[in-house]
Structures are given as structure tokens and as C-alpha cells.
Amino acid sequence: MCASCRLDPVASRHAHPLAPHSRGSAGGGAFDETRSRLTEAERADRAAQLARTMALLRHASGCADARCASSNCAKVKALFQHAGACPLRVAGGCQLCRRMWMLLQMHAKQCSEEGCPVPRCRELREARRRTAARQDEQRRIAYQKMLRAQTGRAY
Prior knowledge:
Helices cover 61% and strands 0% of the residues. The protein is extended.
């Protein structure tokens, strides 16, 4: 459904028929997995594209050549500049900032280089580490509670 129909399907003036979109059991119907499946070739293409994008991000982060031969390097540098000066940022709904943030997070997820030149890489890796540690602690506490409930003893 379009956004206005979703907000008020009764008062909608659209001529199109209203049909609810279902996603999973929460949406009221089973999700058709056959449409969401990718072929092996499509998966390989996506993986290769992601690898090229991550390599470009790394290159552009350390490239000081104003006349770099790669036109994509200049695009990523412009994206870096935009993200640094944007008044909206991700929280304000800027799609360019959102794209940059997602690229930085994907990079940080797979990066293990100590002196990585990609902006915010170290901070994002540290944030991921803290989140994982917090989740591990919560799992440990939940497991201890479960054991106490089962045995009736305190540990």
C-alpha cells in the first residue's frame, strides 16, 4: 500500500485496490521465500561488489592524490566530505550520510588492522566489541538465573 493508504485506508481517495502486504507471520501471511532467494551467481556478484566497495573505501581513506585516476575515489572522498559537513546527518534522515555510515560499519565489522586509515574504524570496532561483551554478560546472567530456577539454589 502507499503511505497515505497505510495511514488511513478508509479515507483514502486512491483509485487502486487496497491489498495488505505481508512479511512473515507478523504481517498476517507467510513470506514467499522463493522471491527473496538469490542464485549462487547473484550471491557471488554481491560478494564481489562488496569486496570492491570495501577496497575503494580503504583506498579513498588513505588517498591524498587530488587527481587520483579512479573516478570512484573522488566520489567516496566527496561522500566523506558530505558526511563531515551535513547538518542533517543519519538521525535527520540524510540518505548519503546513512549510506556512508553503513559502509563504515561494514568495513569495521571485517577490519582487524590496528592502524586502519578508514575514518571511525577503530571507534566502530570498539563499539562492536563492547556490544558483544554486554550481550555475553546478559547471556551469562540469564543462564545463571535459569540454573538457579532449576536447582533452587543460589550460585
